[in-house]
Amino acid sequence: MKDIAGQIESGTAASGKTYAFNEEHDPTRPAQMWFQESDEGLVLFVVFYTQACRWSKCLGCNLPSKCSRFHVGYKPLIAQVDTLFAMPEVEEKRLSIRKVIVSNNGSVLDQETFSSTALLYLMAKLNLTIPNLKTLTMETRPEYVDLPELEFLKRALEEGDTPTTLELAIGFEVFDDHIRNNIFKKGLSLETFEQFIADLARYGYTAKCYLMQKPVPGMTDLDGVRDVEQAIDYLSRIAKEYRVRIGIHLNPTFVAHGTPLAERFAAGEYAPPVLRDVARAALHARGKGVPVFLGLYDEGLAVPGGSFIRAGDEPTVEDLERFNRTQDFGLLERVVGEHP
Ligand code: SF4
What we know:
Layout: H1 4-14, E1 32-38, E2 41-47, H2 74-86, H3 88-93, E3 97-103, H4 116-129, E4 135-139, H5 147-158, E5 165-173, H6 177-183, H7 190-203, E6 206-213, H8 221-242, E7 246-252, H9 260-266, H10 275-283, E8 292-294, H11 314-326, H12 329-338
Parallel strand pairs: 2-3, 3-4, 4-5, 5-6, 6-7, 7-8
Antiparallel strand pairs: 1-2
Iron/sulfur cluster is lined by residues 53, 55-58, 61, 63-64, 105-106, 141, 171.
């Protein structure tokens, strides 16, 4: 039997991360859920409570701390699905939901941490409950993508009342190869990424790539902007080359507790990016055929003072949220122009 808890522990220790896992959580309730407004309509984002990410090495990431070090079986996971669909806000909004993003702060397609039975149950409940679903997004690392499994999930989705696209969301994080793999410890080569996109192309799926702006100490604010710009150019080229729709989810980095980034922040050696620079980086996507969504929520995982949202940023946040709903690049220009 595989020692998944051991893999999680060694991955966490390998990057010097010190956070604890969440063993107190009620396993019949999802870890988190929230709604987002995007240009695709209303989005339901759900993070199921499962065993934590098996990789667990990425330098500034403490997402696994919301999950368990131990296995969460299919019965509690199915109970989480039921809990989700019984929530009054989900019941109230279910007819307006156009996109559902399924996460477990790791890899939904890793069958060791997310039960296949529960995944099938979730698909059935989505078809029964969200009749206007346009896109189903699943977060995963590329190594867990199993094409026959996706073919099956696609067939299940096609039985829903509305044509639904399957989107796979992966953490690309940083364009610079050395920073991505040697410093941030993402463990993702461009070769693996392009094979993943080629596989999606065969099945007509779409991709979403998470990027982080200024994810490691030692990068200046300008380095952070430039890296995102290079990632946008690369992803735009790959989308055209493989004829796959690639959306970008750009997360300004926050200082996650229990990570080496938090230590460098406490020592005054790191500061999160400012929102003006996030707008500046995202502006680069205008006309490139890759829609951008700005992640403006730290999921309550930042240390005090470690967020990218600072006092007085509220009007800027409103502009950026409006950009998420409209893809109106004029709003980004305004943010950059108002804070030259
Ligand atoms: S970024 Fe994703 S793959 Fe990396 S440790 Fe965090 S949850 Fe795991």
